[in-house]
Amino acid sequence: MLAHLLRKSPNSSLINPSNNSNNSNISSNSNFSTHYTNNSNNQASNLYSGSLHAKFHSNANVDTSSVNFNTTDTNIPKVYAQNHMLDHMYDDLKFKLFGTNTLKDKNDRICNIQTENKEKPTMTNPPSLIRRTSSSLSLSNERFQDGFGVFIVEETAKRMSRCSYRIAMEYVSIKGTAIQKIRPNELKEYIFGSPIRLSNSTQTTKIRFIPTSGLIMVTRLFYFEAGSNRLAICFCVPKKYLVAICEVWKQVSLWFDRIQDIIINLIKNRGANNNYRSFVLSPCGGNNGDNSEILLPVDIRNQYPVEAERIITCLKKMLIPNIESIYITPRLFMYPTTSKGFVESWFIDVFNWLEIKDGNKMGFLTVLMAKIMMDFRDLLKKSDVTRIVILSGNPVVANKLIFILSGLLGPKYKGRVEFDTMGNSNLLSIGHKKKPYNFKDHLPNTNNTNYNHNNNNNHNHNNANNASFDSINNMRQPSETGTVTSSEEASNATVEQFPSLTMHSTSKGWEIPKKRGTTNLASISSNEFLGDVIQPSSFKSGSSSLHHLFSSISSQTGSHGSWFSKRPTISQHMQHTPSTISSGSYDRLPSLFRSSSNTSIFGGQGSGQGRTFSNLSSSFATTALASFSTPQQSPSISEYDDYPWFGTPSTNNSNTNNTELFSYNNGSLSYKKNSKYNFPMVNLQLERNYQRLSQESILDEAFDRISKDTTMELIDTVDNQNDSSTDYKITMGNENHASVLEVPMRDLDDDKNEESILEGISDTEQLPRYTIFQPYYNGLFQLQACPQGSESEHKVTLSMKQELYNHSEVHTLLVLPGTREIKEVIMSKKSLTENGKSKICTNDSNTDLESLISPNSTERVILRTKRIFGNGRIISNNGITPTTNLASTAITPDTTGGLLVDYATLIEDILKQANDIFMSTSTSNILSTNNTNNDNNNNITSINNLASTAPATAASTANNTTVQDIGPITGSSVVATSMASPHFTQNSTTATIAGPIARDDISSIRDDLSSLKDDIPNTRDDTPSASNDTCNVEPMNRGLQLQALFTKLLNPELSLPNPIPT
Amino acid sequence: MDMFISLSHFCDKHGPRVLLVTQMNFNSSDNDPLLLPDYPLESYCDSCILHFPPVSTKQDIRSMRSVLTHHNHQISFVSTQYSSIRYQLLSSIIRKTFSEETMIYDMTPMIFQDDINKLNFVMGFKLHDENARGNERRYCLTFSIDSTDHLQSMQLLSANIDFIINGFQKMIGYIKQLRDVQLNTLAKQGQLDDNLTPIISTYLRGNKTKSSKNLTCLTNDKGIFVKLHKWNTFLLSSLYKKCHEKYERDE
């Protein structure tokens, strides 16, 4: 019996023994499993789950006491934990990745589609039902609890009869749902339509709504052979999945094809037994009763249980998870390169990564970026089965890396996303110009000048008169909670006082946000590298805490990031006092002085720029740090983020004679300081759900204009071609056509001759399939991160293999931040030669070559794994000897390594330039803040006093600052720019950059931007900062320069010495 | 990819009929094949005919055209009563929507795809009209992709499905709203021949006096077809731009 059952369940052989690694996650996994066992109230399903149990119990490696098992194929996405991923993500990261922190998982348009019929939701009973049936284990809400159903129906020849159909198979995943409430007669109508129709034998697929049930029905109608009865396969799912079904139409079609094959085989088998054929071929001779022409058996599930099981399993494990994962997986928002806020934030994240993750042995990120720029960016566009998979045990780090990588990828959002980096950072607009979103409307505080850049999230708790600490920030870093509320406090801010300023509401900081996507106190993170340190230890991901431990340790090779091993001690800080002012060790400290009140010192103008506080006394800072080392969290929690709480001391960097390809050592030093910049991302208030951006506002506006067209009234005055009263014209008829009314579309243009609405609509609403860290690998997404496990790479290759059915070559870039490895996996199909062998030769030890015989055995699947990067260096200088056509990569293997080096060098140079921009603008920022904060003179003075006592900051207060003291830059000095005339600095040693950005270009862009600045609604005029332009020039120019650099980064072809062979 | 939007109608007398179809021509010229020659109007009843706005001169207008420029390339959008180049296809589509499928006219989308009808996205609605059978007139707004590549056309639809649903709902909502306003106006003037009026109700009785009513009459908006043309043009041009600029906009 058992063997029989095992044979029946085709996927049971694919049960993944790697679930040992997931055992810690019993609750979520058991959710998954119990769903299928408990909710399948039919015999076949119970049999099926029984077989799985049997399989697992026979597996000695699996803890039999655990219900944790993986029943799915590797390509089946498991998505039930998606929302948990978002629950524990800080808003700052959400802004970066999604553009907003309020993601709707519903498609309102679809969900409200039947509101006019006053439809009552009928799908409300499943949750209670589920809870009753699953006694001990609570089910995750994300499961496909709405239920789904499958029907296989045959239409008999007697179309006009009432009983012109027969349901050969019916399966409903959850009993008692709306699916079962559809009356059979209605069902027939929905499936087959009217009996009166053209007699053709075409195969039709249709999606339709079932009224008053909240369901959609997807039907495939086909014929066994011409003239036979019409057969139908159909499945019902809740209507919210309409969009997802359309998006995975390929899979839906494939599913229909498979089921169709099963049914046709079944009919053939049956015909062989019953000799039915004669009846079918002579439909007129209906002397044999009603069943004579019936193709399908009366009850497939009883008579053909194997086939029935295959049909259900196919749906349950192939299609439904795909639909669900498309529906529920949040996708990244692709910021446009014109967004200065994004660009700055992106550079800062890159610098943070280089500083903290890559450390001494830089190269990993730059090579990864180079590899993506070199070919993967284009491959992703060309084929939707090209993927970048980050395998990491640490979701936070993986998501940070995803943010960095997504910056390189396209397609980008084309509309306007404008952070106002000027007077108030709360004004921004997306989409069409006419509809800027003003945050002021949503904020209780009308004084926009008070927004600390740290708090300019939409839902901040800013209160001008509230001197208490902002509870949203203090959960992660003690210094961030500090608020200097008066000048006396500021000037008297001595070491003793700091502890009292800290950890004001730590208990609150530990609270786990209960509700996702709402304004919650506990999840706001605006300070990038401070963010995400404290994660609830109850966080459930697909991998165990062992994974986190693993990645935390292993990913720190050669760097200083390991929290508990390399954490700077107090004495270290003390020792570094004079010299490490530029090392970034306590760059975060000044946030101590950030205030959410209007007595704010540094964030006072809310400029949206990361203020720098380099003029703080170093000794002051150090002592403050020392006092802050007390409230440490336990490593088990804070290690969750690989970023240390405090900066990393720069030690022994400069003296290392690293003769590697890239002189990273110097670079790493110069990157150090950047962590002080913190461009906060703000909530874009995007109207979006998990998959799509809403374009309703554009449609609203366009429709308003069209429906209010007044010139239409004048049409009847149109005389002939020339009538000035209206734009409507009449083209006279000729021999080919009659007269034509020429309808102008001018009313779609803006009133002020600005861009037409039509210009703004060219964005797709559908976001690319890039997502964040997922608990399970999901082959549908092109950029993702998932836990690293013993089987994770195998899962990736297995899903690639499945793609080979439709594609000749599949590429995947595997990124392992833990071990700093980058691998490119290429799988291709090759027909066997006449000898039955395909000739494969390799002379590259870095390339793993496997040959797998694909199921049809006339083709050979070739798997090549190229290690791009490992052990801190580029490996694949010499590609493998190609046995398959590599033309699609547009790069011959021989030049790959060299080109990669070129790209990496270029990227590194650009990053260095960006770093210089940051550093050169840092000092002036603080000056301008000082100059313009007239309202807060007392505070400024006090801080200036503090600053002036520090000799180390003397240079930084000067207009012209050189940054050579930060560290030697190879063979050159980087000239920092003055505040008054910031220039783009060019590192003279970066000879590989063929086309440095000309100063003219910059100035022209600057001109463009300053004109753009005028377009920004002038609410900033209310702010004091607007009164002094010097405050605005710097960040504006910095943004410009960074933007230019970013554009350059995205177009490396323009700068490479050797153009890419195409 | 060839896309077009049509408004069709189930006539009490003539069955499924196209009222207006908006098509695109990528090579705009004076002799646009989409423009219709003069055709006799006698064969159309009032509810089936496309009413062009009245023009003072005695011109027999048979087409509406808007020309939009996209990347220095002129694309014309032509709305006509019927499609001369897709006559069979369109006939087949409307026959399927109105006759072969059990359409529900409640603004829920229906999508069907096969080799004959290609990919169609249909949204049905009905307007109250005491002069029509069952006191309602049934209409369908259909977005069609004339392509044999099923997957690709579904991809296009899927990438813009919210946009299309939203766009259709806007137009249908507008028409229904106009109809409601018109009904209210008539009711106030006491001109509404409501079958549900208890005294002289013709409800469930034979109503021999069914007469054809045009959409312009039902909505009391002479420019409704021009607006439809404009809206279709907007939707089509947006969709065209969206699918053509998908990958041209990275940098």
UniProtKB/TrEMBL annotation, chain A:
- What biological processes does GO assign it? amino acid transport; protein transport
Q: Which InterPro entries is this protein grouped with?
A: DENN_FNIP1/2 (IPR037545), LST4_longin (IPR041153)
Key words of the record: Amino-acid transport, Protein transport, Transport
UDENN FNIP1/2-type domain location is 143-871
Q: Where is the composition biased (Low complexity)?
A: 9-31, 445-467
In this chain, the stretch annotated as Disordered covers 1-38, 438-514, 555-585
**Is the Protein transport keyword given for this protein?**
yes
Q: Cite the PROSITE patterns for this sequence.
A: DENN_FNIP12 (PS51836)
Keyword Hydrolase annotated: no
Q: Where is the composition biased (Polar residues)?
A: 468-508, 568-585
| Any Gene Ontology CC annotation | cytoplasm
One Pfam family name is Longin_2
What does the sequence similarity comment in the record state about its family? Answer: Belongs to the LST4 family.
Protein name (database record): Protein LST4
From TrEMBL, chain B:
UDENN FLCN/SMCR8-type domain boundaries: 55-251
Q: Which GO terms describe its molecular function?
A: GTPase activator activity
Q: Which Pfam families match?
A: Folliculin (PF11704)
Q: Source organism's superkingdom?
A: Eukaryota
- Name of the protein this chain belongs to: UDENN FLCN/SMCR8-type domain-containing protein
GO CC annotation:
cytosol; FNIP-folliculin RagC/D GAP; vacuolar membrane
Q: Which InterPro entries match?
A: FLCN/SMCR8_DENN, Folliculin, Folliculin/SMCR8_longin
Q: Name one GO biological process term.
A: positive regulation of TORC1 signaling
